[in-house]
Amino acid sequence: MAGERIAYVRAPGINALRTFDPPLGALEGETVRSVSRRGKHLLVQASGELALLMHLMSAGRLQLYDKPAGARDRTSRLLLGLEDGRELRLREFGSKQAAWVKLLRTDALERDDALAALGVEAWPDPGDAGRLGELLDAPRPLHSLLRDQHVIAGIGRSWVDEILWHARLSPYKRGSDLEPEELERLREAIVSTLGGAVEHYQQTVAVPIPDKLPMPLLVHRHEGEPCPRCSTKLEAVHFEDYVIAYCPACQTEGRVLKDRRLSRLLR
Ligand SMILES: [Zn+2]
Asked: What integer best gives the mean pLDDT of the chain?
């Protein structure tokens, strides 16, 4: 995409666009400079000192197609047409419309709330174990700390389960209680889990990225199944909008954590 001229930009249907100045039309005729990632955000930088900042949220996809979307396309939130006929689409599936886009001037980009508050990038290098220890030095459970984009950027609900399983750490262990040797394991698990996922997608996914994209998960969404490492049954803690999955033998010294949903059902 880099080097390609932008022929048109549209935000059809319910508007995902969160900014109005500069207008979307300002991108037309400009050239794509780069496409990159910042934490869980995607960034298309263009000539004319313009940048499109996007967050796909949980059900969005950024897909590059050979030709424009048809009139019946109802999933597109943003269409960016290139002069060579290809079209980059931000599409969203499911009932919630949460994905968003901002068109910003490059000099305002770093000051934007979404990026200014981001913590250290989790991948490819979150820093050494000492640095990670400083970042995570808070009396909060690892499951919440690692997903806090202000602390460390780029880890979501699925990958945090995988990372903690790889590191053999309890999701409820407090960041400030981590021993140096545990920080080493955690650092290694963050880098290898996220790196492994990137490699997996690079090898298995072709453009356009398909609507359905299975995640290469070993633990998350696998509660009730045997642990791939030790065969103990994987357990889960259910919350209103997410689930923590873990192995009691590998991560919590054999303890099964209290599952609020289960205890509510049994009451
Ligand atoms: Zn296990």
From this structure: 93
Instruction: Report how far apart, in Å, the C-alpha atoms of 10 and of each of 58, 169, 223, 264 are.
Output: 22, 46, 42, 47
Predicted structure pTM score: 0.91
Q: From ligand 1's centre to the CA of 171, what distance in Å?
A: 14
Q: With b meaning 16 or more CB within 10 Å and e meaning fewer, what string describes 241-258? A: ebbbbbbbbbbbeeeebe
Alpha carbon of 134 to ligand 1 centroid (Å): 28
In this predicted model, what pLDDT tens digit does every residue of 79-137 receive, in sequence order?
A: 999 999 999 999 999 888 899 999 999 999 999 999 999 999 999 999 999 999 999 99
CB count within 10 Å of CB 210 equals 12
How many Å lie between the centroid of ligand 1 and the Cα of residue 235? 10
Gap from CA of 220 to ligand 1 centroid (Å): 13
